[in-house]
Amino acid sequence: MSFDVDVVARRGEATVGARFVADDGLTVLVGASGAGKTSLLDMIAGLLRPVCGHVRVGGRTLFDADSGIDVPPEQRRAGYVFQDARLFPHRRVQANLLYGARDAARLAEVAATLDIAPLLRRWPRTLSGGEARRVAIGRALLSEPAFLLLDEPLSSLDPARREEAMRAIERVRDARAVPILMVTHDAAEAERLGDRVITIG
Ligand SMILES: Nc1ncnc2c1ncn2[C@@H]1O[C@H](COP(=O)(O)OP(=O)(O)OP(=O)(O)O)[C@@H](O)[C@H]1O
């Protein structure tokens, strides 16, 4: 089982949470705006502490309220791609990709998979939204994560960029190297990319 999650957290006035198990491949998470999708990714990454429950990924317990386990975020090895790409503006694309990389020798391979090889010398501010997202996914992959969390990686892209980004995610998915949890609002995207769809809220 790749993801085994059963969590609840409080966010201001709201209580958010989810319970699901998911196998390898790409699991899509859908739910209304405010349902708690980002909060759920934050709990899996270790950025938001659940009030109860557990988080297990690939058989490893990352959080368990009953036994007091709470692995710190940097030891969870999540490749988290946030809604905004959050590249370092003062580093070129290549330096962004290599930030936190565990195996720099994989740079060319990852850049080819995501079709970003021509962008390596560019500054983040010169990238389109789709290019920046692909670089953010590449940076996450080069950190050799145990799992990938993608928060709406395709939102607000025009159709051409969306198609490019979708193909890049398909290639990562089909390589089967890491389980992926991806949030989307788009039913067609969920259908095309997801091995399964989980609805929360
Ligand atoms: N820092 C915060 N303080 C208080 N409430 C918060 C905070 N962050 C989120 N919330 C609330 O928690 C709930 C879940 O938010 P979250 O961002 O996880 O939802 P979401 O499903 O990802 O939404 P969207 O699809 O709009 O991105 C919402 O009701 C939101 O208003």
UniProtKB/TrEMBL annotation:
It holds the Pfam family ABC_tran. Residues 2-200 form the ABC transporter domain. PROSITE patterns: ABC_TRANSPORTER_1 (PS00211), ABC_TRANSPORTER_2 (PS50893). GO terms for molecular function: ATP binding. Keywords: ATP-binding, Nucleotide-binding. This is Molybdate transport system ATP-binding protein. It comes from Sphingomonas endophytica. The lineage of its organism: Bacteria, Pseudomonadati, Pseudomonadota, Alphaproteobacteria, Sphingomonadales.
